[in-house]
Amino acid sequence: MMDGHEVTVVDNFFTGRKRNVEHWIGHENFELINHDVVEPLYIEVDQIYHLASPASPPSYMYNPIKTLKTNTIGTLNMLGLAKRVGARLLLASTSEVYGDPEVHPQTEDYWGHVNPIGPRACYDEGKRVAETMCYAYMKQPPDLITENRASHQDGKAPVSGRKSRGTCGAPGSPSSVLQEGVEVRVARIFNTFGPRMHMNDGRVVSNFILQALQGEPLTVYGSGSQTRAFQYVRTSEIYKVGNSALSPAQPSASTLPQKADPRRHIIPSANTGASSAPSSDLVNGLVALMNSNVSSPVNLGNPEEHTILEFAELIKNLVGSGSEIQFLSEAQDDPQKRKPDIKKAKLMLGWEPVVPLEEGLNKAIHYFRKELEYQANNQYIPKPKPARIKKGRTRHT
Ligand SMILES: O=c1ccn([C@@H]2O[C@H](COP(=O)(O)OP(=O)(O)O[C@H]3OC[C@@H](O)[C@H](O)[C@H]3O)[C@@H](O)[C@H]2O)c(=O)[nH]1
After folding, report:
1. I need a labelling partner for 73 at 20 to 30 A (CA). Which of 121, 131, 201, 243 fits?
2. How far is the CA of 63 from the centre of ligand 1 (A)?
């Protein structure tokens, strides 16, 4: 928005909150639509960041059918929208497509090790089929490939862009390619954290920070020897405390774009938030990928790997908490090792995370501390209703 793009955020608020974006309401480049991508959406856009789907294991396991619908029907709807309006679509895929990996670190060409009937399958397999759908919609129409080949042989530049297509027909006929030709980008996002995570998110970063801040035991599932690598979502948050607690500072009039650019972007998720400050890490990676010519999947993550137990100790120290560490039973199908190989992102996007883990964690700790304060000060206490005085009708005798 600060670059002059018009942004439409589409969210069903299943795991998101209006509070994450409310500071933008009223901005001329911002629109918020309460909509579930499982239903078709008819708007005009030229880029779609398809971020919809609960991402935390407790949230996506809460209603596996809904998670599957969001990742399948929701993805089909977004691809259908992309095709109708000629938009480019970026899918937020996940490191979970690699399952409990047998290859370490995970490179994009690894096919993964996923239990298709386990408790994580609604998300893992949902995202895997979402990727499949993207590439089915991207496939170039055969006639265009033939033209490209012919023009190569002629020594002419390959043809880019689209052609008008016919209706569905027999396989192989020109009319069988109705769904194809959509430009797609696929980001495989590894564990991410940062401000505006929900207090009840249930992922390890928010759990450990909130437990440490409240002096509760830090709950480690299993032995804690499983590893993860955590990336920060974005940087330079400026928080104001008061009635607009936890919102970044509003952009000043001088930083507002003079004239809205006709380009429009749609972001179907609540968890992206928006900031007047420069963004970094995951957000930069997504924008760089969207605007690149890389159509194959790209890992976006921080390769600094730690065991979950090390991570618990680190958070305890950063918070300065005396909390104990409590070992609970292992989560079923929990990936034992995870670390992204980000050579491709570095080479093809010139992207790598820049926020060191401790700096990112300190920002997240600051955010959750403020959230706890906010919660304590903004408890909803119903006011006793004054007794209803019936406005009696004038009696006529
Ligand atoms: O309280 C907790 C929570 C989690 N954990 C452990 O911490 C590790 C990380 O768990 P999280 O719930 O944060 O996230 P996971 O790595 O399991 O899944 C995540 O992976 C990548 C993303 O695409 C997804 O958003 C999310 O599914 C797991 O080994 C989990 O068992 C704890 O030990 N204690």
Report:
1. 201
2. 18
